[in-house]
Design goal:
This protein is an all-alpha fold. Helix content is 58%, strand content 0%. The protein has 13 helices and no strands. Helix 3 runs parallel beside helix 8 and helix 10 packs across helix 13. The protein is globular, with a radius of gyration of 23 Å. Homotetramer. Its EC number is 1.13.11.11. Heme-dependent dioxygenase that catalyzes the oxidative cleavage of the L-tryptophan (L-Trp) pyrrole ring and converts L-tryptophan to N-formyl-L-kynurenine. Catalyzes the oxidative cleavage of the indole moiety. This is Tryptophan 2,3-dioxygenase.
Length: 284
């Protein structure tokens, strides 16, 4: 039977007794999840819930991004480029969702935000250890960031460990070397605790792959996936900066940064600089 009186009948085999069965709510631990929003403004301001949920959902997505990027690095360690790129492809879709979320926060007007901003104290997205962890895995390392997490031993330990480990990009070059590609020693022996910077020694190999992509398709595809990953990350950073500008103008951030000015500087940070630099060389 179809729909009658604008009502869909409950099918007879649909489970309704969850007294001894796992339900949707119990599987997702919704009691915990939905009770985690605790506005601090007094009196409680209507728009603070939006602000909290925006940042909590971002942290959930960052948890998955970190999960996938670490899995991609592990796949490169096992010389499984295809499996690594599957993880990267998932991250790219998550990034699009994260970027679109800024449009929701942008509905928060300056007057609405000012009603509860003072209650936030010095809490700031700058203090997101998962965001820093993702940056570290992608190669944008900064040992100075660890001081922000001195009061959070678990976060500090995670970042300290990731600081000392090879980045996703480092693991990729090591993988190519094992597969027989002529990866320069400067890429294989670099100090992995330092932020990744442009290595011109890699440009001939990258150019060769681009110009002979049919014979080196997996590596060629990896290059383009990395470029997508970086571009998506920069779009997220840009939308973040513009949303902050729209909401608080040029005020300082709650965490002590210069606000928009500090966020603008992040647009100059890079993960895979050779993959962009080689574009100037191709076709010459």
């Amino acid at each position: 039977m179809g729909v009658q009186a604008n009502t869909r009948a409950i099918e007879k085999d649909i489970v309704t007794d969850f007294s001894e069965r796992m339900s949707y709510a119990s599987y997702l631990d919704l009691d915990t999840l939905l009770s985690a929003q605790k506005p601090v403004s007094r009196p409680e301001h209507h728009d603070e819930l939006l602000f909290i949920i925006q940042h909590q959902t971002t942290e959930l997505w960052l948890k998955l991004v970190l999960h996938e990027t670490l899995a991609a690095r592990a796949a490169f360690d096992e010389d499984e480029i295809g499996r690594a790129l599957k993880c990267v492809a998932r991250v790219k879709h998550i990034q699009k969702t994260l970027t679109e979320q800024w449009s929701v926060l942008a509905t928060l007007t300056p007057t609405e935000y000012s009603e509860f901003r003072r209650f936030l104290g010095n809490s700031s997205g700058f203090q997101s250890y998962q965001y820093r962890a993702v940056e570290f895995v992608l190669g944008n390392k900064n040992a100075g960031m660890l001081a922000v997490f001195d009061a959070d031993p678990a976060a500090h330990d995670l970042l300290e460990r990731l600081l000392a480990e090879p980045s996703l990009y480092d693991a990729f070059w090591q993988c190519l070397a094992r597969l027989g590609y002529d990866v320069p020693a400067s890429a294989l022996d670099r100090d992995v605790t330092a932020a990744y910077t442009l290595n011109e020694d890699l440009l001939p190999l990258i150019k060769f792959v681009y110009e002979n992509h049919d014979e080196h398709w997996a590596v060629y595809e990896a290059f383009e996936e990395f470029v997508d990953l970086e571009e998506n990350f920069q779009l997220w950073r840009f939308r973040h900066m513009r949303t902050v500008l729209r909401t608080i103008g040029m005020k300082s951030g709650t965490g002590g940064s210069s606000g928009v000015g500090f966020l603008q500087k992040a647009l100059d940070l890079t993960f895979f600089p050779e993959l962009l630099a080689v574009r100037t060389e191709i076709g010459r």
